[in-house]
Design a protein that fits this description.
Shape: globular
Oligomer: single chain
Distance between the termini: 34 Å
Structural class: alpha+beta
Number of helices: 12
Helix content: 10-25%
C-alpha cells in the first residue's frame, strides 16, 4: 500500500514533477526507426512525458524532435513540409531545423533579426537497435548512449514493437515484474504461443502456482527471483531484472529469444508499452520474426496506421467467454500482452494504491516502488544521479535456471545475469 502522496510522486511525470525530472535523465525509446524511414519523410507526432512534440528526419538524415507548435500562430507542425534541411510551417512558411532554430521567416525583413531570436524546444535523438531514442534532461547531465543488449546486437538479431496502453506507466510496469500471475493469467497461452511453447520451463509454471519470491538489490535496480519447485532437490528460478526507471527483461524459455519491455509515459493516464525480442548469439528466424510482426509472443496486432491494439477496451479485448469456460483460454482473451493490458487498464487510469492488500508474492513490486521513491527524492533534494543511468547497470540479462535448493540464486547465477558477447542466455 502507498500513501496518496507517494502514489502521486511515482505516477506524475509531466514537466516540473519529481518523477518527470527523473525520467528526463535517461535516454528513452520514442520511435521505431521505421516511423522515420528516409530523409525528408513525413513528420510524426510524439507525446511523451506530457509534452507534445514533432519528430522528423531532415534532408541530411539528421533527427529532430521539437515543439509541435509553430512559434508564430501556434499551428501544429505535423502539417509541415519536410524540405531542404528543415520543417516548414504551411501556414506562413516559418521554417525550423532539427535543433528548433527558426531558419526562415519569409514575410519578415532579414534585418529585423526576428528569425535569429525564435527557437522552439528541441531534444537530441539517436538511433540504435532499430529504435530512435530521446534525451529530454539538462544538457550537462546527458548520459552515454544506452547499452541495453537488445539494442546493441546486430539488427538481424533484434525486433521491437510498441503499443498504446490506456493507464499510467507505473501499473503497467508493475505487471511486468509480477511473475506470480503467469501461472494464472497466461496459463494456457504458454503452451501454444510459437514464441513460448516447447520450453521445459513451462511445466514448472503450470505445476507450481505458488512461487516464493526473493528480491536482490543491484546497482541499477533489482533482480526479482520467482522460485518454483522442481525435481532432483532443485528449484526452478525465473529471475526478472528491473532497471530504473522502467526497463524489464522477462526470463527466457528454452532457445526462444529473450524479451522484455519499457513503459514510457505518454501522459499520466496513458503510456507507450515497448516490447523487444532478441537473441544474443543468432539471427531471429523467419518464423520468429513473422510471429512477432503478426502480434505473437509479447507483441500485439495494432489497427493499421496506429499503435492502438486491435483488441482494446472499447471492444472488451475481443474476450471469448466460451473459450474461457472450455479452458482454452484462462481469461478468455488471446495474447500475452493484451491479457496483461486488459487487467492493468481495468484498474483505471491511475490505480488507488491506498486500497491495496499486498502479499508476499508482491515483494518485487514493493521493492521497485522503494527504489523509485528513494531515487526520485535523492535527485530532487540532492541532485543525485538516478540508478540505471550508467551503461554498465543496463547490461543485465534475465535468467531461468534450475538451481540446487541449498544454493543462493544470486550466487549460483551471478555470471548468467551479465551480458556476455557471444554467450547464449541461460534458459530452461
Amino acid at each position: 500500500m502507498l500513501s496518496r502522496e507517494d502514489n502521486d510522486l511515482l505516477t506524475q511525470t509531466g514537466p516540473g514533477t519529481p518523477m518527470g525530472d527523473m525520467f528526463r535523465r535517461y535516454w528513452l525509446p520514442v520511435l521505431l526507426s521505421s516511423e522515420l524511414p528516409e530523409n525528408d519523410c513525413p513528420p510524426v507526432r510524439v507525446q511523451i512525458l506530457s509534452e507534445r512534440l514533432i519528430a522528423f528526419r531532415d534532408s541530411d538524415g539528421q533527427l529532430g524532435l521539437i515543439d509541435e507548435f509553430c512559434a508564430h500562430r501556434g499551428i501544429s507542425l505535423w502539417f509541415g513540409r519536410n524540405e531542404e534541411g528543415g520543417l516548414r510551417c504551411p501556414y506562413h512558411g516559418w521554417k525550423y531545423d532539427v535543433n528548433g532554430n527558426c531558419t526562415e521567416i519569409p514575410s519578415e525583413p532579414e534585418e529585423s533579426g526576428l528569425c535569429k531570436r525564435i527557437k522552439l524546444t528541441a531534444y537530441p535523438m539517436i538511433e540504435k537497435g532499430g529504435v530512435i531514442w530521446v534525451y529530454m534532461g539538462p544538457k550537462e547531465h546527458m548520459p552515454p548512449e544506452p547499452e541495453y543488449e537488445f539494442a546493441s546486437v546486430p539488427l538481424e538479431q533484434t525486433f521491437s514493437s510498441k503499443r498504446i496502453q490506456e493507464c499510467n506507466w507505473l501499473q503497467a510496469m508493475e505487471g511486468g515484474i509480477d511473475s506470480s500471475h503467469v501461472s494464472f493469467l497466461h496459463r494456457f497461452t504458454m503452451t501454444k504461443d510459437p514464441l513460448f511453447k516447447g520450453a521445459e520451463g513451462n511445466k514448472y509454471n503450470l505445476k507450481d502456482s505458488k512461487p516464493a519470491f526473493e528480491v536482490k538489490q543491484i546497482e541499477g535496480g533489482l533482480l526479482i527471483g520467482a522460485r518454483r519447485n522442481a525435481e532432483n532437490d532443485q528449484y526452478y528460478w525465473r529471475v526478472t531484472p528491473f532497471v530504473a526507471p522502467c526497463f524489464t527483461a522477462i526470463p527466457p524459455r528454452g532457445d526462444h529469444p529473450i524479451h522484455g519491455h519499457f513503459w514510457i509515459p505518454i501522459d499520466d493516464h496513458n503510456c507507450m508499452s515497448w516490447s523487444y525480442d532478441y537473441h544474443p548469439v543468432r539471427p531471429l528466424s523467419k518464423d520468429e520474426r513473422e510471429a512477432m510482426e503478426r502480434g505473437e509472443g509479447i507483441h500485439v496486432a495494432c489497427i493499421p496506421g496506429t499503435f492502438t491494439p486491435v483488441q482494446n477496451k472499447d471492444n472488451d479485448y475481443l474476450m471469448d467467454r466460451e473459450a474461457q469456460k472450455r479452458g482454452e483460454s484462462y481469461s478468455g482473451i488471446e495474447g500475452f500482452a493484451i491479457q496483461d493490458s486488459s487487467v492493468q487498464e481495468s484498474m483505471g487510469p491511475i490505480v488507488d494504491r491506498t486500497k491495496e492488500n499486498l502479499v508476499s508474492t508482491d515483494n518485487g513490486i514493493i521493492m521497485a516502488r522503494k527504489v523509485l521513491k528513494r531515487a526520485v527524492i535523492a535527485l530532487r533534494d540532492k541532485g543525485q544521479t538516478p540508478p540505471g543511468v550508467a551503461v554498465e547497470e543496463q547490461r543485465v540479462r534475465s535468467v531461468s535456471k534450475l538451481i540446487s535448493r541449498s544454493e543462493d540464486f544470486l550466487e549460483a547465477a551471478k555470471e548468467d545475469f551479465k551480458v556476455r558477447e557471444g554467450v547464449k542466455q541461460t534458459s530452461v
